Request: fold
Amino acid sequence: MKSDVDLRDAENMARVKEIRQVFIEYGQKASFVTPELAAIPETTMKQFIAEEPKLEIYKMGLMDVYRMKMHTLSELEEAVMAKTGMITGTANSTFSVFSNAEMPRVKASIDGEEKELTPANFSMARSSANRELRQEVTKSYWDNYLNYEGTFGEMLNGQVKVNVFRAKARNYDSALEAAIKPNNIPVEAYKSLVKNINDNLGTFHRYLELKKRMLGVEQLMYSDIYAPTVKGVELKYNYEEAQELILKSLKPLGKDYIEVVDHAFNNRWIDVYPTAGKRSGAYSNGGAYDVHPYILMNYTGQYNEVSTLTHELGHTMHSYYSNKTQPFATADYATFVAEVASTFNEVLLNDMMQKKLKDDDMRLSLLMSMLDGFKGTLFRQTQFAEFELAIHEAAEKGTPLTGKVLTQMYGDITRKYYGHDKGVCTVEDNVAVEWAAIPHFYMNFYVYQYSTSFVASQALAAKVLDGDKEAKKRYIEFISSGGFRLSN
Ligand SMILES: [Zn+2]
Reply:
């Protein structure tokens, strides 16, 4: 993690590279384990577990060997598959270098100043109150991406091919199944998320209509989506105030929970402020099982960073409780549930702020940011998930995924979500190339879990906020259970 504190530090970077190489080599050298386990008959294994109590904590992992048996290859084939790790990351790393560093950027005049339209400047300009500026930067930003449509298409196509190759090599029916079956998530769960969101796009359109009314525009455009709807409201809190707000908002989770968060604040679990060379954004890392989780923040005092901080603390507390309660073998939780505890905390913070703030504009601004959360996490991530599924299915059917094809597919889905044909929100033509800017499409069916986690945390938090004692108890049990599962 030290390398994230200063990305310019070559020594730390070299250590990161070295440890990554160790992981790959470890994977190769240990690749014989699973095939050897699979060679033991399942009944024999169950007998071993029944006879030896120390095996109990490995039960799920051992039984997973049989659940995954039809996708496990021979020892030699596994060794070859492990070696593909050296080459399968190329599409993603090319994308990362090109879009973060080498892609030429156009200039735009922002607030009377000529600025390069980097992702950060674009994101700032598109959330400006000045509509002309929003439309102008949206046009030039995506027009620029269209210049590299073919290149981005080859990169994403390369990644999709990796996923399709892995699925075929391991006897899966589809790339989707290959991505989610290892975590025991049924393909139907993914598809039903997409279907249910599609069935409820009307609710999303109500949100867009509301946005249109608040902005006072005749026709809502995609370039208006990030515009501020409440004028002149800016909530700011210094770090001490943020801690106070968060501790207060977490009260429904009880004294024990709050004490640990307080301890985290006072014992340097968190790298708080932006410094030169520091990695942007925020994350929680709970990997140090017998130490404690760590958080990286870039806190500057905006309200949404208070929200980010409580989000990361949710991850941290999930790791903390699981690491404390579970033995190492079952401490790690599946990604599928990873965003529940984090978004749960955001709901609590929002609820408290709604009650605390008396100013109408401020409350309105918070309500809107909550709705924006539904847009960004539930609808947008499912839109991504639908696109991801569509492009993999197209590749599986042999459709060549060129940049043009990807833009066509992304545009169709985006227009459907935003009610373009119904006149709800006009999606500008060049916005259809937005897929080219989204790193998550290199994450192999990852983003749907934002939506499912969000839905789960909304439901769980509603019960806890209702004062349901049992719900609170079950929630703490849930974040203490890591990857432990009673039955199989
Ligand atoms: Zn998160």
Q: What stands out?
A: The chain is about 60% helix and 5% strand. The chain has a mean pLDDT of 94.
